[in-house]
Specification:
Protein name: Nitroreductase domain-containing protein
Distance between the termini: 21 Å
Number of domains: 1
Keywords: Cytoplasm, Oxidoreductase
InterPro entries: Frm2/Hbn1, Nitroreductase, Nitroreductase-like
Largest sheet: 5 strands, antiparallel
Helix content: 40-55%
Subcellular location: Cytoplasm
CATH class: Alpha Beta
CATH architecture: 3-Layer(aba) Sandwich
Radius of gyration: 18 Å
Mean pLDDT: 97
GO molecular function, one term: oxidoreductase activity
CATH topology: NADH Oxidase
Length: about 200
């Protein structure tokens, strides 16, 4: 059975070799990212996911700030490899910063006390689905990307630099750009170890 969504999902891969050779405009990429997040599901239709989309020099600035933040805690020996990896993220067209709005979570906890313990979990699930939606949409437009997690190490500098509301909790960073390298084969564990079907 053919399925366009699964075809797009299979196209989504981690790309560390990013470049700036994209034909898509900043406006088109912004619309694509926004639409992917807007149409991602969330519990109680909470729409708790937030994003800051950084292009060009602003994206480079993010990864420069990340380099300095990581340098403070990482061993000096071998840091050149870490720095090179972070600079590779800056080599792309931009970066999406993904956040979850904790004010939304708290509001739902107050409104639906019976489910209070679940709302932080459901927020994380909504955030994950938003990240996957954006990543898949980018891949389907032949834009490379990867998902990074330098939070909470960079939370403070990000909040200060881009005036992030206090209730927005940084969850992930997605550098994106042109695919400057191909992809190797992707391995999968045996289905019998992972799935059970009944009925």
């Amino acid at each position: 059975m053919s399925n366009a969504y699964l075809d797009a999902l299979k196209k989504r891969r981690t790309q560390y070799s990013l470049g700036r050779n994209l034909s898509a405009s900043k406006e088109a990429l912004t619309t694509l990212i926004q639409d992917a997040i807007k149409h991602s599901p969330s519990s109680f239709n909470s729409q708790s996911s937030r994003a800051v989309i950084l292009f060009g020099a602003e994206s480079v600035k993010l990864w420069d700030l990340a380099i300095e933040a990581v340098r403070k805690v990482a061993p000096a020996e071998g840091f050149d490899k870490t720095e090179a990896k972070l600079k590779s993220f800056a080599a792309g067209v931009g970066t999406v910063l993904f956040f979850e709005d904790q004010d939304v979570v708290r509001s739902l906890q107050e409104k639906f006390a019976l489910y209070a313990d679940n709302f932080p979990v459901w927020s994380e699930q909504a955030g994950g689905m938003a990240q996957l939606s954006v990543w898949t949409a980018l891949a389907n437009a032949d834009v490379g990307a990867s998902l990074q997690h330098y939070n909470p190490l960079i939370d403070g500098v990000v909040a200060g630099e881009w005036k992030i509301p206090a209730s927005w909790k940084l969850r992930a960073q997605m550098p994106f750009g042109s695919n400057e390298n191909g992809f190797g084969d992707k391995g999968f564990m045996d289905d019998a170890e992972r799935f059970r079907v009944a009925g």
